[in-house]
Structure prediction request, 609 residues.
Amino acid sequence: MTSKMPIESSIDLLPRPAHVSRRGFVGGLSAGILGAVASEAAGAETLADVPDRGPGADLGAHSERSRFVKLDRIPEATPGKRNVDPGDAINSKTPHQKLVGNITPTDLHYERSHSGVPDIDPAQHRLLIHGLVSKPLVFSVEDLKRMPSVTRVVFIECTGNGWENWKKADPDVTVQNTHGLVSTNEWTGVPLKFLIDLVARDKSANWMLAEGGDGAGVDRSIPLTDEIMNEAFVAYGQNGEPLRPAHGFPIRLVMPGFEGNLNIKWLRRLKFGNEPWMTRWETARYTQLLASGKARQFQLRMETNSVITQPSGMMQIQPGYIRISGLAWSGHGKIAKVEVSTDGAKTWKQAQLAQPVLSRAQVRFQMDWVWDGKPTKIVSRSIDEQGNVQPDRQAFIAAMGTNALFHYNAQQTWSIDETGRVRNVLA
Amino acid sequence: MSSHDKLLLAGILTVGLLAAPALAFDFGRPATPAEIKLWDIDVGPDGKGLPDGSGTAVLGKQVFADNCAACHGDNGQGGIKDRLAGGQGTLASNTPVKTVGSFWPYATTLYDYIHRAMPYPTPGSLSTDETYAVTAYILSLNGIIPADGKVDKDSLPRIRMPNRDGFIPQPEFDPAKLFRRK
Prediction:
């Protein structure tokens, strides 16, 4: 859900930082956000304590993370079912509270799979394109790699992102729990339009069924609007290398700005027809139950969204300088601006955006803040280039009810108590 | 296609002509009708794609007990995975129960989904008649067909599911309007 607001004719994307006294700035640096860095800050009180230099480890065939860095996704089940056995998990969430910048590390890109991760030999994988076409064709992965390609940085978001907070806010969760089902990678592949021209689609075929090679054979009906025809592609590359198995190896559909489950992984069939197939996933699953008892269907586009990732749930802060940072994204296009409130949505200030801001990609925002040590709430809201404003929770729930399960894009509020504990709240 | 793409394609075309008799834009190979049939499993709401064959709810009860009950419960309820029966009248409550009977708009989708995705460890392992039978049994559990009912490719698309009118398309992608203006 989004509302429209006129975009200011001149948007200052690089505002002056909020006034911060030098004393507050320097003094705050050592305090700041403790949750994530406390253990790393300890141990070198004077330069004499810093360990001596010396020859390091042998060079390797690939680089691993430092032994001092621990970054993991969290496999989870339905809302509220956390710390599950991996065999019971239906998704695995990105640790946004520990990440910086715009791009999600490949191995930390969120995962949602409906029947596990298939082990596919690319030499034996085929893509069948058929239905209302003149020339049904079969492609190998090598065929696809020989074709003209596109490369784009885009977010992919599970429609279940944010589903922890539909009915209540568990205070003891992290931003990984609440917003770990969206990630941004660079994807490389063949424009869908190029493949469609090869098979010579019938002019009446306005819908396409995309089907995966997983055990569930996940399939979705996709309307071939001009926008989708121009933007969709069949990807074989992810951040410069072949796709990881969890993300669709050897090929997946990429649908910039649209529901994660439309980005069919392990893609093996595209079929053209003139109406939707009403698959299980577009009827029984990825539809949004409204308060009336009716369900919204074909809500295919992901909404205007943002979340503060630092400081965020379960962190501990101290009075002084705090750099607020987070991520914003919209399925409608580019993020135009992000505003942050540090007084529970009473007043708002414009945050800085990390350049370049790309269409349908997550963008990092940040803002300077000096916390006075009094309890408060911090919250962000994004506005995209189409003028869509991320709604506050009250307006959002008024429109969607609390049963929709998917497409939650209400503003995320973090409360901060007098001891500096950051916790998840509804508003 | 942009002019850049056309240029690129022309370049590939030229190289292709020099390297091999086949044209470079002949990527891939023709799909034969026989192999398309192997993969062409989707079933539409009009019943298109449903195979010959049939199944009764009586047979389906046994097939369900052998292949489905371990996850979905003895009567499609109380299992560790999705509940399949009951829940009618709950969709507007604070605790909606979405099942085949209370939520699914098309009976054809049930056949399609069982055939493509179930049983979870061995999807597609049920025969056509067994798939129809389990479909019939789940429909009977929801009171949609009688306990001695039977379904096939003609009857399944004609079944009117209780929640058939329970869906409102998002206006931007409403199938009834989307491509009509062109």
In short: Helices of chain B lie at 3-19, 33-39, 57-67, 69-72, 107-117, 128-141. The longest strand of chain B covers residues 54-56. Chain B has two domains: 1-30, 32-166. Chain B is about 35% helix and 5% strand.
